[in-house]
Design a protein that fits this description.
The protein is mostly helical. The protein has 12 helices and no strands. It folds into 2 domains: about 25-150, Multiheme cytochrome fold (Orthogonal Bundle), CATH 1.10.3820; about 150-180, no CATH class.
């Protein structure tokens, strides 16, 4: 027991005044290596939370929105390009991604307290959840959409007349963003009674 207490005391002395016991070079190298390990672990964890497997690991997502996604063009299409949850719900740029992850951490409370843990509860909150996401996309000018779709890259001659008219008008005005017209592109729309511009 005496030896353990002596080791603890020695450890505390070293930690409380490391420059007296350890060289500056050792401290710098140790700090650098620790920083690299922390940064690597942090980024690995961030990327793991961007995987489809992570997103649908709770039944609320797998049984509701993921099932809906599977019947859309974002899931299966002629080009074989599939969008996963994070493609549409998490920005790609690092600083925007961190901000979104911090915002999404509030959603953990919903999981803990069972806010949408049944189909009925989910349907009851569908419109509120959708409106939050639409507002977020409107505020960031549909950033996640534009990671794959950009007006400048569109060939309007290969689009339907209606799509070409809408896209060229949105491009010219600069006032509309993807989510203004493409609500329900990957998930079932909630009851849209009273929402301007949506026919039901």
């Amino acid at each position: 027991m005496k030896n353990i207490l002596a080791l603890i005391k020695l450890g505390w002395q070293i930690l409380s005044r490391p420059a007296v016991h350890l060289s500056l070079g050792f401290l710098v190298i140790t700090g650098f290596v620790s920083g690299v390990i922390f940064w690597g672990g942090f980024n690995t964890a961030m990327e793991l939370t961007n995987t489809e497997a992570f997103c649908i690991s709770c039944h609320e997502m797998e049984d509701n929105v993921y099932m809906e996604l599977q019947s859309t063009i974002h899931y299966s299409n002629r080009s074989g390009v599939r969008a996963i949850c994070s493609d549409c719900h998490v920005p790609h740029a690092w600083s925007d991604k961190i901000a979104r992850k911090m915002q999404a951490s509030k959603e953990v409370w919903g999981k803990i307290f069972g806010t949408i843990n049944t189909r009925e509860k989910f349907e009851g909150k569908r419109r509120e959840l959708a409106e939050h996401e639409w507002a977020r996309l409107k505020a960031n000018n549909s950033l996640e959409c534009r990671n794959c779709h950009e007006f400048d890259s569109m060939d309007f001659t290969r689009q339907s007349k209606r799509a070409a008219f809408q896209h060229s008008g949105a491009l010219a005005s600069g006032e509309k963003t993807c989510i203004d017209c493409h609500k329900g592109i990957a998930h079932k729309l909630p009851d849209m009674a009273g929402v301007e511009g949506i026919s039901h």
